[in-house]
Amino acid sequence: MANMSSNDLRRQLEHEIVLGEIVPGTRLDEVALTERFGVSRTPVREALQQLSMMQLVEIRPRRGAFVKKMSLKELVDMFEVMAELEGTCGKLAADRMIDEERDKLKELHLITEPLVKNKDYDGYYRANVAFHEAIYKGSHNDFLSDQTKSLRNRLTPYRRLQLRQSNRLNNSFQEHAEITEAITSGNKEMAEQLLGTHVTVQRGSFNDFLASLPMDLIDQSA
Amino acid sequence: MANMSSNDLRRQLEHEIVLGEIVPGTRLDEVALTERFGVSRTPVREALQQLSMMQLVEIRPRRGAFVKKMSLKELVDMFEVMAELEGTCGKLAADRMIDEERDKLKELHLITEPLVKNKDYDGYYRANVAFHEAIYKGSHNDFLSDQTKSLRNRLTPYRRLQLRQSNRLNNSFQEHAEITEAITSGNKEMAEQLLGTHVTVQRGSFNDFLASLPMDLIDQSA
DNA sequence: AATATAAATATTGTATACAAGAATTGTTGA
DNA sequence: TCAACAATTCTTGTATACAATATTTATATT
Known about the structure:
The structure is a homodimer. By secondary structure, chain A is mainly alpha-helical. Chain A has two domains: about 5-70, Arc Repressor Mutant, subunit A (Orthogonal Bundle); about 70-220, Four Helix Bundle (Hemerythrin (Met), subunit A) (Up-down Bundle). Chain A has eleven helices and five strands; from the N terminus they run H-E-H-H-E-E-E-H-H-H-H-H-H-H-H-E. In chain A, a hairpin with a 3-residue loop joins strand 2 (about 55-60) and strand 3 (about 65). In chain A, helix 4 packs across helix 7 and helix 9 (about 170-185) packs antiparallel against helix 10 (about 190-200). Chain A binds a DNA duplex through helix 1 and helix 3.
């Protein structure tokens, strides 16, 4: 397979950046990456160019590539858009899902009940992703689905810690119940409204949300 | 200035693709581009990698880079998202614009009146862009603003011909009047609703919109 | 000792060289 | 004449070489 080394490299780095394994602000040294991946600088540079277009790294001319640090303002803006996109997915899903998809959504919700009971955070995290992606798909709008998924992905490092907090797990489950009911019953306004607030606030105040953000990952200078 | 050749190249090609000067489906030959821009293959390839991440070109392994052809489904999906984003911008702008911005919006609308009277399509096209971008900025959400602008940009080749049609100019002006009124008076629901339909339908049927699409630019195979 | 300046060192950006796979052309056989 | 195969040519993907700019280190001067 060809042109895979630069694409593979990009995917790998993307993964590590999104998961926060590479801390925002760190410089991505080209030769270090060549040694790590056993390739020349050419595919490394092509991968970095790709990541810069994805807004995951910032290429400063003649200075190198840096994992992008987002300011609090940028982050809040992105979460606001995320909320809108999730809401739109919900609205369209309530309208367009076929019976099979509605059944599947119910199922994806119900299987999380034991996970909540057992406080299985990792398990719930994965099931939560599946639940939301089912809604994206249910919009029957591939572009919207991809955009939403991609933005969710980019916000991952700033969301990972949230579920661990106090009774977020219970809150999330409760909200999922309402969302599932709204979508499967075709109540699009309700689905949109519920999903629009679900992402960020989760029945808490916005201040709590802000406080939950890992501030060390945030660019204080901007 | 450094790393500018690959970025400049990307910008130039992006411009030409978005304006439809390079027809979707055409292959972008690397050596041809090196000759045209007087650079080596390295920056050419980096530019193509960037464009592939922007979904403007498709890189088929060992086959080359092709200007992306969008299927009708993809296009409809993108316009649907565009409508949502425009609506969101309007909603937030109605809420957040400061007095100065509201005045500016009124002005940007009013200066288009003579352009409509004189059927100055190019002039109106430019003024229209300025009007809408003022709304994006008025959302006070830079991420949303950038995303909306970028998507509008990508849809340009499929929108250029629309304004020329029958009395689209008058319709557009009339709708802008209502939008301006809604935003400046802070009626966010109205602003969202008006902008959500303005992009695509412009007081016509959706079928008319579909019929207005330049079908030769659309991938029939997909 | 601290700062400024200059040499050296390292890193990015670009061009070229080489390797591997695709497309094309030409030839052979039915 | 057409189809199938083979050799050639072309194009992409990767590595390396060279050029230009930042960064670091060393030296000199106050």
